[in-house]
Amino acid sequence: MRMVFKALLLGLLFGLVAKETLAAACPAVLDFTQRALNSTDEVNLCESFHGKVLLVVNTASQCGFTGQFEQLEQLHNQFKDRGFSVVGFPSNDFNQDRGSEERTAKVCYLDFGVTFPMMARSSVKGQQANSVFDEIAKQSGVTPKWNFYKYLIDKNGSVIGVFSSGISPTDSKITQMIEQTL
């Protein structure tokens, strides 16, 4: 009985140490939990994306750049098996994502077939910016000037590239940086 108790105690201690080690090693840009789009599910960004190359994008469902969802999905599928993910953050900061989150989810998932992770609608600039975009702005010095700004984040959680709305997600500047970073 004592052996079983010791084994359980040891297992518990290893679990706590591993969790604390992961938390300590989590890059600042991922050290947050976000709600998934049109869901009550919470996404621990560190658990989901630690050690991956990310393209973080502020999206909008009613913007002239909304068609970029197709290229973002293409990019995600091209590199996802190599430790890469696109992560979308819908925002109405530029009055281009009006209506309910349910409507936003319909545009993303049904109209454009998005399979990459989409977080709940939030602000991406100013005093109300969500924690991820606040950290991105601290690192890069660049807040989104419009929808579909793209931020390339390396495996260590550092912002290494910023791309404006007018640059297609499949532009060679982005794909080459992803290739080099993977």
UniProtKB/TrEMBL annotation:
GO terms for biological process: cellular response to oxidative stress. One of its GO terms (molecular function) is peroxidase activity. The active site is at residue 63. Residues 23-182 form the Thioredoxin domain. SUPFAM superfamilies: Thioredoxin-like. The keyword NADP does not apply. The keyword Hydrolase does not apply. Keywords: Oxidoreductase, Peroxidase, Signal. It holds the Pfam family GSHPx. Residues 1-23 form the signal peptide. Belongs to the glutathione peroxidase family. This is Glutathione peroxidase. It comes from Vibrio thalassae.
